[in-house]
Design brief:
Rossmann fold, 14 helices, 28% helix, GMP Synthetase, Chain A, domain 3, alpha/beta, 518 residues, 14-stranded mixed beta sheet
Length: 518
């Protein structure tokens, strides 16, 4: 029998049944929680109910749930029956969902009652979908998910899985074509725990650990889910919108000892007035997605006696590089590769670069937590490798002490507040607006978000640029056409766009212009 993370969590429930596994607080301050024993019982009951309803090993299940206790129950239940989980952000729109379902031939969807509308818009265009389950409220045409648990036994259940079976199918942006289906096996959580869950997000049983990522993202699986439950700690969950003062109060009132937040969240918390009035018990804090600036690191060290440590990884792998707890933190640096992890800077020909030389950040194909390929896309899988190295798409350099330094993307992908955004997705949404003739989207440097999405737009009628409401109109149009986090925070109307002789837009010229003006 291969490794199954759900079985590992069950083991913790046998040794510490009354230990709190998940603590959830909503915006009104209401609390709900599950012990490890309760989590085991709930997942056993749901797993049995799903199997009784025909869900089985190998079923591909797209999960659309917001933050809360339910994602923990659902993911573990699905893994107990050997299913493949397809994480889906609550911000996905109908077109995003349709692409994922049809590409993966998913046959089950589990959605919060607030998210079923987006699925209903496209369900007739998704012939592979057979089962529709909802939680949190009844919806016509959907079966209440947890009704499946009724009258089911709490006795342990675990379908036999192999290490190479597909456990996770996450979709991530590419520069061309649709999003790529990243395949991770049932062995992936074990390898992630051995690296990131040990050397970086180092949860221990006594911790109340808060990782702020929402379900639907690889980061949620990394930290809030695998790294916390796999180490027997308590996962803290907040069901509310980010406000820096609220986050600080929640950490103070709930004894949060381990924090993983985005650079944007850290930057805004560091700007709160009277920061010293908050009494935090943080023993460790980490951040990933982009380098943190020295001011933020210095502020948290001064006010809370904790060093915020950077980390770097991707949906296709795990955390690869980071500042470990006992390492010197060098602001602006990602840190060093984790012990036993072959990460390097390589040239275009696959040879390793010299110290100080800028090249591709790459991980050797032998890395156990590396993805198994892009689903049904051998061409893009092969393109991601140069020789024995998987190429991340990021550029960097290594200094004399082995610290890695980020030097930018190798392609047009935009990373804003930790979100990965394809320019094409935003451009495609914009040109569907009747007033837009053509557009180009690039990353523009931003002090809080790292980068924001900026759109250069050519209008069909240049006089429309005089409309003071047009920018907001275009932004709202994008929000309703694709996931809202992709909308352009800056829109500039132009008469022309830089292009190659063959007519392709040269986004690199626009990016260089943005970098020069930062």
């Amino acid at each position: 029998m291969g490794y199954n993370f759900a079985a590992e969590v069950d083991k913790i429930s046998h040794s510490t049944p009354d230990k709190r596994a998940v603590l959830c607080v909503d915006e009104q301050g209401n609390k709900s929680e599950l012990t490890y024993l309760q989590l085991r019982h709930e997942t056993n009951r749901l797993a049995r109910g799903l199997m009784a309803d025909g869900i089985q090993k190998g079923s591909r299940v797209i999960v659309l749930l917001p933050r809360g206790i339910n994602p923990y129950i659902v993911y573990l239940s699905l893994w107990k029956i050997g299913a493949t989980v397809m994480p889906g952000s609550e911000m996905l729109r109908g077109g995003d969902i349709r692409y994922r379902v049809n590409h993966a031939q998913a046959n089950v969807v589990i959605a919060d009652h607030t998210l079923t509308e987006q699925v209903d818009k496209i369900r007739q265009e998704c012939p592979s979908l057979e089962k529709f389950y909802t939680s949190g409220g009844e919806v016509d045409g959907w079966e209440p998910l947890f009704r499946l648990s009724d009258n089911q036994s709490t006795e342990d259940v675990l379908v036999e899985t192999k290490d190479e079976d597909i456990a996770i199918l996450s979709y991530t942006s590419g520069t061309t074509g649709g999003p790529k289906g990243v395949v991770h096996s049932y062995a992936w959580p074990r390898e992630h725990l051995a690296v990131a869950g040990t050397y970086w997000f180092d949860a221990v049983p006594d911790d109340v650990a808060w990782a702020t990522a929402g379900p639907g993202w690889a980061k949620w699986i990394w930290s809030p889910f695998v790294s916390i439950l796999g180490n027997g700690a308590t996962a803290f969950v907040y069901q509310g919108r980010f406000k820096p003062e609220t986050y600080l109060t929640l950490m103070q009132d709930n004894g949060v000892s381990l924090l993983c937040a985005t650079p944007t969240e850290y930057r805004l918390m560091a700007k709160v007035k009277d920061l010293s009035a908050y009494s935090l018990s943080l023993r460790s804090a980490v951040s990933a997605g982009e380098p943190l600036n020295r001011e933020v690191i210095d502020t948290f060290r001064r006010e809370f006696d904790v060093t915020v440590r950077d980390g770097y990884g991707q949906t296709e792998n795990s955390l690869l590089v980071g500042t470990l707890r006992d390492m010197e933190a060098r602001p602006g640096s990602m840190g060093t590769p984790f012990p036993g992890t072959r990460v390097s800077i390589v040239r275009d020909d696959g040879t390793e670069a010299d110290v100080g030389e800028i090249g591709h950040i790459a991980v050797h194909k032998s890395f156990p937590a590396l993805f198994k390929g892009y689903l049904e896309d051998e061409a893009r899988t092969q393109k991601a490798f140069i020789g024995e190295w998987y190429i991340t798409g990021d550029k960097g350099r290594r200094d004399d002490d082995g610290y890695f330094w980020f030097e930018g993307r190798s392609d047009d992908i935009i990373i804003s507040s930790g979100y990965t955004i394809r320019p094409f997705e935003v451009e495609d949404a914009l040109v569907k607006h009747p007033k837009v003739a053509e557009c180009a989207v690039v990353a523009s440097p931003d002090s809080e978000r790292g980068h924001i999405v900026k759109a250069y737009v050519i209008l069909r009628d240049a006089d429309d640029a005089k409309d003071p409401n047009l920018v907001e109109e275009l932004q709202n149009h994008v929000k309703t056409t694709t996931a809202p986090y992709k909308y352009p925070r800056s829109v500039v109307f132009v008469d022309s766009l830089p292009k190659t002789t063959s007519g392709k837009i040269r986004r690199i010229e626009l990016r260089q212009m943005e970098d020069a003006n930062k």
